[in-house]
């Protein structure tokens, strides 16, 4: 350990696991964006809240930047360490700490994978309902730091709805107990909620108390094929008025081509422009008949061209794979990811405006559209053409995103619906937040982290050093 600061850290915390091998720096220094070259100072893997506190005291003493790190499945570069930062990985802090059946709450360490939290809830016949394809790798701490959404938001809301308490370590190493599992607490600013979606810029989440709920009734999964976006929105309104939806997710023919090429099973014989995977309560025959009637009404109107209802759990999983497999299937094409939201009612007009723009000005790009349409959340993935190098591709995509951000501003939408701002969307924050809002957000950061050592450069550009020290 040649770096004097690291030698001091090892002396202060002799039990702390510290990694400095090149392969580890590379592994822990990047996330799913794969855009930046990892260059962290070292990786710290604390095993307790006290060790996290010790690391932060050391970091603030030496002015070392710290990147909190979960499963590094983030899609906006929030967990990237490319500038000599210390990566603070929560991966060893992955245990259940407590369960209370009266409160119906589970307290876990922040490095616990989302799927493990779901399984821990299930062991008590309850459900932690936030869910999405990265469940096996992402952590509850990362979900909290990004306010993750996923495929069940239409029924259950985002991560924010499910967090009843947080234990947080501040930049200076203090321990905060925020909200402590209380349902009602009108005692001033809700610092717990401020932590959610703060992307590691306000504190390190070390423990979380999550609310659990009863399992939903038995459900059915349906795949629908549709002619256009207008029909899709009409089917959404129809299904929402007649059924109790758990999910309503869309993707295009282009997305389907990629998933099928990646090994998913074809469910319909013909090809169609748009698809929806929807899941709804179907506890009894009446509910199942209502679903069939809604489907037939959509067919009669010409809004639904084809469809299939899963007849088994395996078939339901195969239909879900068509939607959930999209991210992995396009990953080899180094997609430039956009994750935007508008009000649900504005989706067709926004989508049309963007499709017109992309078709007119960027015909060279293959664009994959999919997302959580029932929440007004669209994922617009631009795929890299083989003949374009990475830098030229990103430069062109940034032009696209500039225009996308301007269109979003007209629609009053958001440049990040659920992935966070990180590094990728930092230049476009002002399309979603006003100058006054951004100044207030910077003020909050200054209050929590006056030295600016927590995940600097993420969410907004680092403060110039003079103003940081004022
Ligand atoms: P990381 O990537 O490690 O970090 C994300 C951010 O959180 C960084 O800024 C990091 O510094 C900060 N952070 C991490 N842990 C902590 C902590 N303990 N304290 C403070 N800050 C911390 N996201 C969705 O919202 N919905 C989806 O449907 C969805 N689907 C996905 C599907 C796939 C296949 C993949 C690869 C990703 C998907 N994502 C989705 C994105 C990603 O999984 C989420 O953003 C997730 O919440 C990130 O968790 P993580 O543990 O991997 O966080
Ligand atoms: C999804 O909804 O599948 C995710 O947010 C992942 C992605 O956008 O690629
Ligand atoms: Zn998503």
TrEMBL record:
SUPFAM superfamilies: FAD-binding/transporter-associated domain-like, FAD-linked oxidases, C-terminal domain. InterPro entries: FAD-bd_oxidored_4_C, FAD-bd_PCMH, FAD-bd_PCMH-like_sf, FAD-bd_PCMH_sub2, FAD-linked_Oxase-like_C, FAD-oxidored/transferase_4, Oxid_FAD_bind_N, Vanillyl_alc_oxidase_C-sub2. It holds the Pfam family FAD-oxidase_C. It comes from the Bacteria. Residues 36-215 form the FAD-binding PCMH-type domain. Keywords: FAD, Flavoprotein, Oxidoreductase. The keyword NADP does not apply. Its cofactor is FAD. Belongs to the FAD-binding oxidoreductase/transferase type 4 family. This is FAD-binding oxidoreductase.
